[in-house]
Write a structure and sequence with these properties.
By secondary structure, the chain is α+β, with helices and mostly antiparallel strands. Helices cover about 30% and strands about 25% of the residues. It folds into 2 domains: about 1-115, Creatine Amidinohydrolase, Chain A, domain 1 (3-Layer(aba) Sandwich); about 120-310, Alpha-Beta Complex (Creatine Amidinohydrolase).
């Protein structure tokens, strides 16, 4: 519960504008603030309340109110101002809330809060990365793309975790498609594997390309970019630096340089050329430059940014 108190403490400043926040279980922020998967969270900046059906498991440390269907509306302060995440709220629920109280969209505030990880969150992501490393060295790539993907999924489940997204396995000319869907094609080099696992709700995301002629070139660029990644740096500037270093190959780099990871596989910060995000201490994100021509290569690692260092969590 101490961990949950830390997270709820990150939004106490919203008390000046709101009478409470309301988050539903389908919203990733519900898990973030409750470490639970079912119910409705109402937090009035004093004691958090979970509203659930009687068959749901009560989270530790929360006061629970048993409700049926849409009874949660009656528990809200009438004519108050309620913070909601419009990004993950059905229109029908939004309209229902508005009959009881005013609303304020706090999507951006919640994204910013989650972008700065606690020590617990960083350790969970570290563990997810460690499991990914073990799996990578366990699998045998002598197969077809589809069969290798099945081997990956089997290994992930054998480790007692879940995939953080559907793995990508591509070989030969198929590697030029960043989001290739594996086929029955027999594997040949280059071979690109993009996968991750979810440990205690937290994701890893790693890509390795084996047998590509541009590997040394891409690694050299990464060696130059890593020292530039520090707290206070604009995320967009890092993306632009890599594109400049790619020279004539920059037109074959067709996605952003990286993205935050945590409960979701894509979170803040965004490391795209147009990003306005500022990198901060305890952010966790990927760096994943790629070149996609006749065939493709992508190298993706996960990092935690500390005050005086950038730590690679997928250093293998």
């Amino acid at each position: 519960m101490n961990e949950i108190k830390k997270r709820l403490g990150k939004i106490r400043h919203l008390k000046k504008k709101l009478d409470g926040i309301l988050i539903f279980s389908k919203d990733p922020n519900f898990f973030y603030f409750t470490n639970s998967s079912s119910g409705i969270l109402f937090y009035d900046f004093s004691k958090p309340v979970i509203m659930q059906s009687k068959i749901d498991e009560k989270p530790k440390g929360f006061r629970r109110i048993v409700i049926k269907n849409k009874e949660f509306i009656e528990k809200l302060p009438k004519d108050g101002v309620i913070g909601i995440n419009e990004k993950n709220l059905p229109v029908s629920i939004f309209r229902l809330i508005r009959k009881r109280a005013s609303t304020r969209d706090i999507t951006k505030e919640l994204e910013q809060v989650r972008s700065i990880k606690t020590d617990y969150e960083v350790n969970c992501i570290k563990k997810a990365c460690k499991i990914s490393k073990d799996i990578f060295f366990e699998i045998d790539s002598r197969s077809t793309e589809l069969r290798l993907k099945q081997k990956l999924l089997s290994a992930i489940h054998d480790h007692g975790v879940e995939p953080s997204f559907d793995p990508i396995v591509a070989s030969g000319s198929n590697t030029r498609n960043p989001h290739h869907v594996p086929t029955k094609k027999k594997i040949k080099k280059p071979l690109l594997i993009d996968f991750g696992v979810k440990y205690k709700g937290y994701c890893s995301d790693v890509t390795r390309t084996i047998g590509h002629s541009k590997e040394r070139h891409l690694k050299k660029i990464l060696e130059e970019v890593y020292p530039r990644i520090k707290p206070g740096v604009k995320a967009g500037d890092i993306d632009l630096f890599v594109r400049k270093k790619l020279g004539r190959d920059k037109k074959f780099f067709t996605h952003s340089l990286g993205h935050g990871i945590g409960i979701e596989i894509h979170e803040k910060p965004s490391l795209s050329k147009d990003s306005k995000d500022i990198l901060k201490e305890n952010m966790v994100f990927t760096i994943e430059p790629g070149i996609y021509k006749r065939d493709g290569i992508r190298i993706e690692n996960d990092f935690v940014l500390k005050k005086n260092s950038l730590k690679n969590l997928t250093d293998f």
